[in-house]
Specification:
The protein contains 1 helix and 10 strands; from the N terminus they run ββββββαββββ. It has about 130 residues and is mostly beta strands. The chain has one domain. It is elongated, with a radius of gyration of 20 Å. The two termini are about 30 Å apart.
Length: about 130
Protein backbone atom coordinates (compact mmCIF):
# COMPACT_ATOMS: atom_id res chain seq x y z
CA UNK A 1 0.00 0.00 0.00
CA UNK A 2 1.28 3.49 -0.83
CA UNK A 3 2.03 6.00 1.88
CA UNK A 4 1.50 9.76 1.97
CA UNK A 5 2.29 12.94 3.86
CA UNK A 6 -0.24 15.66 3.23
CA UNK A 7 -0.98 15.57 -0.49
CA UNK A 8 2.35 13.94 -1.39
CA UNK A 9 2.22 10.24 -2.25
CA UNK A 10 5.18 7.89 -1.96
CA UNK A 11 6.12 4.43 -3.11
CA UNK A 12 7.24 3.73 0.45
CA UNK A 13 8.25 5.32 3.75
CA UNK A 14 10.72 4.08 6.33
CA UNK A 15 11.01 5.30 9.90
CA UNK A 16 9.69 5.06 13.42
CA UNK A 17 6.10 5.04 14.61
CA UNK A 18 5.04 8.52 15.73
CA UNK A 19 4.84 9.32 19.43
CA UNK A 20 1.59 11.18 20.03
CA UNK A 21 1.02 14.26 22.17
CA UNK A 22 -2.05 14.53 24.39
CA UNK A 23 -3.25 14.35 27.95
CA UNK A 24 -2.66 11.72 30.60
CA UNK A 25 -4.10 11.39 34.09
CA UNK A 26 -1.51 11.88 36.82
CA UNK A 27 -1.95 10.90 40.47
CA UNK A 28 -1.33 14.04 42.57
CA UNK A 29 -2.48 12.63 45.90
CA UNK A 30 -0.52 14.12 48.81
CA UNK A 31 0.77 11.85 51.56
CA UNK A 32 -1.19 12.23 54.81
CA UNK A 33 -4.27 13.68 53.07
CA UNK A 34 -7.36 11.50 52.86
CA UNK A 35 -8.65 10.56 49.41
CA UNK A 36 -7.18 10.52 45.90
CA UNK A 37 -6.49 13.41 43.56
CA UNK A 38 -5.89 13.34 39.82
CA UNK A 39 -5.11 15.96 37.23
CA UNK A 40 -4.69 16.08 33.48
CA UNK A 41 -1.06 16.48 32.49
CA UNK A 42 0.02 17.38 28.98
CA UNK A 43 2.36 15.01 27.16
CA UNK A 44 4.60 16.42 24.44
CA UNK A 45 5.48 14.47 21.35
CA UNK A 46 9.05 14.06 20.14
CA UNK A 47 9.99 14.88 16.53
CA UNK A 48 10.65 11.83 14.37
CA UNK A 49 12.10 11.25 10.92
CA UNK A 50 10.83 9.37 7.91
CA UNK A 51 12.67 8.48 4.73
CA UNK A 52 10.41 8.63 1.68
CA UNK A 53 10.76 7.41 -1.88
CA UNK A 54 8.65 9.18 -4.49
CA UNK A 55 8.39 7.83 -8.05
CA UNK A 56 7.80 10.20 -10.97
CA UNK A 57 7.34 9.69 -14.71
CA UNK A 58 9.81 12.45 -15.60
CA UNK A 59 12.62 14.38 -13.98
CA UNK A 60 10.72 17.70 -14.15
CA UNK A 61 7.94 16.38 -11.93
CA UNK A 62 10.49 15.06 -9.45
CA UNK A 63 12.25 18.45 -9.40
CA UNK A 64 8.97 20.30 -8.76
CA UNK A 65 8.23 17.88 -5.90
CA UNK A 66 11.31 19.23 -4.09
CA UNK A 67 9.60 22.65 -4.01
CA UNK A 68 6.30 21.06 -2.97
CA UNK A 69 8.00 19.30 -0.07
CA UNK A 70 9.66 22.53 1.10
CA UNK A 71 6.31 24.37 0.92
CA UNK A 72 4.78 22.01 3.49
CA UNK A 73 7.16 23.18 6.25
CA UNK A 74 5.14 24.42 9.24
CA UNK A 75 1.84 23.00 8.03
CA UNK A 76 -0.43 20.43 9.66
CA UNK A 77 -0.70 17.27 7.58
CA UNK A 78 -1.99 13.72 7.80
CA UNK A 79 0.64 10.97 7.60
CA UNK A 80 -0.42 7.56 6.26
CA UNK A 81 2.15 4.78 6.49
CA UNK A 82 2.71 1.76 4.23
CA UNK A 83 0.31 -0.33 6.35
CA UNK A 84 -2.57 2.12 5.89
CA UNK A 85 -2.45 3.57 9.41
CA UNK A 86 -3.11 7.33 9.47
CA UNK A 87 -2.02 9.96 11.96
CA UNK A 88 -3.70 13.37 11.97
CA UNK A 89 -2.23 16.73 13.01
CA UNK A 90 1.41 16.13 12.17
CA UNK A 91 3.50 19.31 11.86
CA UNK A 92 6.13 19.24 9.11
CA UNK A 93 9.35 20.56 10.67
CA UNK A 94 11.53 19.81 7.62
CA UNK A 95 11.46 17.96 4.31
CA UNK A 96 14.73 17.69 2.40
CA UNK A 97 16.06 15.54 -0.44
CA UNK A 98 18.96 13.38 0.69
CA UNK A 99 20.51 12.71 -2.71
CA UNK A 100 20.04 13.80 -6.31
CA UNK A 101 17.03 12.56 -8.28
CA UNK A 102 17.98 9.31 -9.96
CA UNK A 103 16.63 7.42 -12.95
CA UNK A 104 15.55 3.80 -12.75
CA UNK A 105 15.60 1.86 -15.99
CA UNK A 106 12.59 -0.40 -16.32
CA UNK A 107 13.18 -3.78 -17.91
CA UNK A 108 9.50 -4.75 -18.09
CA UNK A 109 7.55 -5.11 -21.34
CA UNK A 110 6.24 -1.55 -21.03
CA UNK A 111 9.80 -0.24 -21.00
CA UNK A 112 8.87 2.90 -19.07
CA UNK A 113 11.65 4.43 -17.00
CA UNK A 114 10.89 6.45 -13.88
CA UNK A 115 12.65 8.87 -11.57
CA UNK A 116 13.02 8.52 -7.80
CA UNK A 117 13.24 11.32 -5.26
CA UNK A 118 14.49 10.20 -1.86
CA UNK A 119 13.79 12.65 0.99
CA UNK A 120 13.91 12.81 4.77
CA UNK A 121 10.93 14.34 6.56
CA UNK A 122 10.93 15.52 10.17
CA UNK A 123 7.44 15.48 11.70
CA UNK A 124 5.98 16.05 15.15
CA UNK A 125 2.49 15.35 16.42
CA UNK A 126 0.51 18.41 17.45
CA UNK A 127 -2.25 17.75 19.94
CA UNK A 128 -5.54 19.51 19.25
CA UNK A 129 -8.14 19.48 22.03
Amino acid sequence: MASSIGGNNFFSTHGTTPELAGLTMTDVTRPGVAGKAWQDTGVSAEPFQLRTFGHFINKGLAASAVEDYAATKGSLVTYADDDGTSWLNMVVLAAKPVRPIFRVLNSSDAGIDYFVLEAVWTLEHYWVA
